[in-house]
Design goal:
The chain is of the alpha/beta class and 370 residues long. The protein has helices at residues 12-24, 26-34, 39-42, 47-59, 65-83, 112-123, 141-149, 162-181, 205-212, 221-227, 243-256, 265-275, 296-310, 315-324, 335-349, 357-365; strands at 84-90, 102-105, 129-134, 152-155, 186-190, 230-237, 279-285. The protein has a domain at 65-239 and 277-311: Glycerol-3-phosphate (1)-acyltransferase, CATH 3.40.1130.10. Strand 3, helix 7 (141-149) and strand 4 (152-155) form a beta-alpha-beta unit. The longest helix has 20 residues, at 162-181.
Length: 370
C-alpha cells in the first residue's frame, strides 16, 4: 500500500473500473441529465439505463488517465466554444518541459482555473498538473471520482483533532514535494483556501506553511520553495457566472458573521461556472520566482505581487468602478465596451436586492486594486 493512497489521484490501472462505477452511479447520471446535454433521452422510459449504456460504450477502451484526459480536453474545448468569447494565454514560453513546477494561482472558479491552465499546457505538449482540491468539494462520491480521475489530490480540511489535521497536511506537503522533485511532475494549488469572492487576490501564508511542512525541520523556506520551481499564475474572467451567489454569500456573512452553505452548493457553483457565459478570459503564466529569505509573509507577498502584476483587466472591472464612483485607472477600452459592460452589470443587479449590490460590484472593481 502506498502511503499516499488516501489522497492521491487515481492511476492507470484504476481508471476503467472507476469509470464503470460512475456509469452505474444514479446520482451521477441524474446530474448529467441536469446539464441539458442528454435531453433527447431524458424523458424516455428507462432513461438512466440508456444513459448508463451509452457511457459504458464510450469509456470501454479508456484504460489510462491520459486517455481519460483526452476526453476531458474535448469537454474543456466545448466549454470554451460555448461560454467564452475569447480565451488568451500568455507566458507558456516560461515552462521547461523537463522540469516539474509548483503553479501557485489566484482562484476564481472551482474547476475551470486549473482546467484552463492544463488545457494550455497540453496543447503545447507539456505535462498537465496534479491539482490540489479541498475535501469539502468531495461530499459526493461521483464528484470525488471525477476529480481524482483528472489528477486531483486531496487537501483534508475536515474538523479533526489537531494531530489528525497535522498528519493530513504533512502528507499533502510530502506528496507535493515528491511529485515535483522526484517525479518531475507539476502541481497546481490556489494561493489561499477557497475562491476569491470579493475580487481581492492574495496569498495566504498558511498555504506556504502547509507546503513547507514536510521540510520545515531540515530545509530553510527560501531553499525549499526554490527547489519546487514556483510559478505564479493569474486568471481573469470578464464575467463571473457565480457573481450573484458570491455577492449573496458576502452579504450574509457580513450580516450574520457566519455563512453556512446549502447542501450541494459547491456542486451547483461548479455547474454554473462551467455552463455560464464568461466573456473574455485571460490566463497569464509568470516566470519562475526566486525566494531570498525565510519569512512566510514575505514569500506570500512576493507571490501576491506577481499574480497581481499578471492579472488582465476587463471592461467589467472598469464599469463596476464607474457605477460605484471609484477612481478609474488609465485603460484602452472603448466607450462602447464600457457602456456595454455597465448595461450588463446593471441587468445582473436586477436579480439581487439593493443591499447586495455593493458586494456584487466590489467583486469586479476590487480587481483594480493592484
Amino acid at each position: 500500500m502506498d502511503k499516499f493512497d488516501s489522497i492521491r489521484p487515481y492511476n492507470d490501472t484504476e481508471a476503467n473500473n472507476v469509470l464503470i462505477d460512475l456509469s452505474n452511479n444514479r446520482r451521477f447520471l441524474k446530474m448529467l441529465f441536469t446539464t441539458g446535454e442528454f435531453d433527447q433521452i431524458r424523458y424516455l422510459p428507462f432513461s438512466r439505463k440508456i444513459l448508463s449504456y451509452l457511457l459504458k460504450k464510450r469509456i470501454k477502451n479508456i484504460d489510462s488517465i491520459e486517455k481519460y484526459q483526452s476526453i476531458f480536453e474535448g469537454v474543456v474545448l466545448d466549454v470554451i466554444k460555448k461560454s467564452i468569447t475569447n480565451f488568451t494565454v500568455s507566458g507558456i514560453e516560461n515552462i521547461d518541459s523537463n522540469k516539474g513546477y509548483l503553479f501557485i494561482a489566484n482562484h476564481r472558479d472551482i474547476t475551470l482555473d486549473s482546467a484552463l491552465l492544463n488545457l494550455s499546457l497540453h496543447q503545447n505538449n507539456l505535462s498537465t498538473t496534479y491539482n490540489a482540491v479541498g475535501n469539502n468539494l468531495l461530499s459526493e462520491k461521483w464528484a470525488s471520482d471525477l476529480m481524482r480521475l483528472n489528477k486531483s489530490f486531496i487537501i483534508d480540511r475536515s474538523d479533526k483533532s489537531k494531530k489528525d489535521i497535522y498528519q493530513s497536511l504533512y502528507l499533502a506537503s510530502e506528496f507535493i514535494f515528491n511529485t515535483i522533485t522526484e517525479k518531475h511532475e507539476s502541481i497546481w494549488i490556489a494561493q489561499k483556501q477557497g475562491r476569491s469572492k470579493d475580487g481581492n487576490d492574495f496569498t495566504d501564508p498558511s498555504v506556504l506553511k502547509m507546503i513547507h511542512l514536510n521540510g520545515r525541520k531540515r530545509t530553510p523556506l527560501h531553499e525549499y520553495l526554490n527547489n519546487l520551481n514556483v510559478i505564479p499564475v493569474s486568471i481573469s474572467y470578464e464575467k463571473d457566472p457565480n457573481d450573484l451567489t458570491k455577492a449573496r454569500e458576502l452579504f450574509l456573512t457580513d450580516l450574520n458573521k457566519k455563512y453556512i452553505k446549502e447542501p450541494k452548493e459547491d456542486l451547483i457553483s461548479i455547474s454554473e461556472g462551467i455552463r455560464g457565459h464568461k466573456g473574455n478570459v485571460s490566463l497569464s503564466i509568470g516566470s519562475q520566482l526566486n525566494f531570498l529569505n525565510d519569512s512566510y509573509d514575505a514569500a506570500a507577498n512576493l507571490i501576491t505581487d506577481k499574480i497581481n502584476e499578471l492579472y488582465k483587466i476587463h471592461p467589467t472591472n472598469i464599469a463596476a468602478a464607474i457605477i460605484q464612483g471609484k477612481e478609474i485607472p488609465a485603460n484602452d477600452f472603448s466607450e462602447n465596451d464600457l457602456d456595454a459592460a455597465i448595461i450588463y452589470l446593471n441587468e445582473r443587479m436586477e436579480n439581487i436586492s439593493d443591499e447586495m449590490q455593493p458586494y456584487f460590484l466590489d467583486q469586479y472593481s476590487n480587481s483594480l486594486n493592484r
